C-alpha cells in the first residue's frame, strides 16, 4: 500500500481526529497506523507537517533534517508530537490505501476543464472523478506516470510522476500537488476512476 499526507482545501492543521478519519475515508483510504507511517518513512517519505495516526497520536516523517522540521542537527526519523485532544486539536492526517480495484486514467479531452466540467466529463465516460487515494495508489502500486495536472474529487489538482524528468518533477518520483485552484478556472484536465464490479 501507500501512505500519503492529506490536508483539506482550508489549508494545513484544520482537522480534528474525527474529521481526519472522515477525510481519509472520503479519499478512498483509511487513517494510517504508526507501523504504516514508519514503513513509508523507511521508503523515503519526508513530510514536515504533523498528522494524525490511527492510535490518536500526531507524528511526521523526516528523512532530510532541516531547520523548520525539528532542526538541522537532529537525526532522521518519525517525529512524535504525542497524543492530543481528539476533538479540539487540529492537524493534517496521514492516510493509507492499498485498495485498488478499478482503472485510474487521465481523460483525453479536447479542452481544459473547470471542476464541474471535469466531474461531468468522467461521468460521461462511464467513470467517476478520481480521489486522492486513487491517484496515490495508481502512482505507487502501478507506477502510473503522467505529466498533466488534473482535477480530483476533493477539488485539488495533482499529477503522478514515477520517472522524474525536467519540467515534471526533476528530482523525485512523487504525486505533485498543484493546489486547490478556483473551481471555475478552465486550466486543467481530469483524472477519472472506473471501479471494477
UniProtKB/TrEMBL annotation:
GO terms for cellular component: extracellular space; perineuronal net; synapse. SUPFAM superfamilies: C-type lectin-like. GO terms for biological process: cell adhesion; central nervous system development; glial cell differentiation; positive regulation of neuroblast proliferation; skeletal system development. It holds the Pfam family Xlink. It is found in: Secreted, Extracellular space, Extracellular matrix. One of its GO terms (molecular function) is hyaluronic acid binding. Gene3D superfamilies: Mannose-Binding Protein A, subunit A. Keywords: Disulfide bond, Extracellular matrix, Glycoprotein, Hyaluronic acid, Immunoglobulin domain, Repeat, Secreted. Residues 2-97, 102-194 form the Link domain. InterPro entries: C-type_lectin-like/link_sf, CTDL_fold, Hyaluronan_bind_Proteoglycan, Link_dom. Disulfide bonds join 48-69, 147-168. Belongs to the HAPLN family. This is HPLN1 protein. The lineage of its organism: Eukaryota, Metazoa, Chordata, Craniata, Vertebrata.
